[in-house]
Write a structure and sequence with these properties.
mainly alpha
Length: about 90
């Protein structure tokens, strides 16, 4: 029960600090490096959940072990996944 409360409290507190820094940058003439670093860091962290996806859910991700199986020559694993080149035994 304490875990979700602590997480929500931390998120609320960090969100308040970010908003303080953003508003101070916008309206205070004496805002400086500290406010800028807090605002930029919070903005960068806000992008993280949008652009990070688990490999198992990513569209077009190569399955774990696929290239290893192709190099070893396992026929059941070769050729899956959209026609990318594999083990290299073509005629020259």
């Amino acid at each position: 029960m304490a875990g979700p409360i602590v997480r929500r409290g931390a998120a609320l507190g960090l969100g308040a600090v970010w908003w303080w820094a953003a508003v101070r940058l916008a309206v205070a003439p004496g805002a400086g490096v500290l406010e800028g670093a807090v605002a930029a860091g919070g903005w960068g962290l806000s992008l993280l959940p949008v652009h990070c996806v688990a490999k198992s859910r990513a569209v077009g991700a190569v399955a774990a072990g696929r290239w290893r199986a192709a190099w070893r020559g396992k026929p059941g694993e070769r050729g899956r996944g959209g026609g990318e080149g594999g083990g290299g035994g073509g005629a020259l």
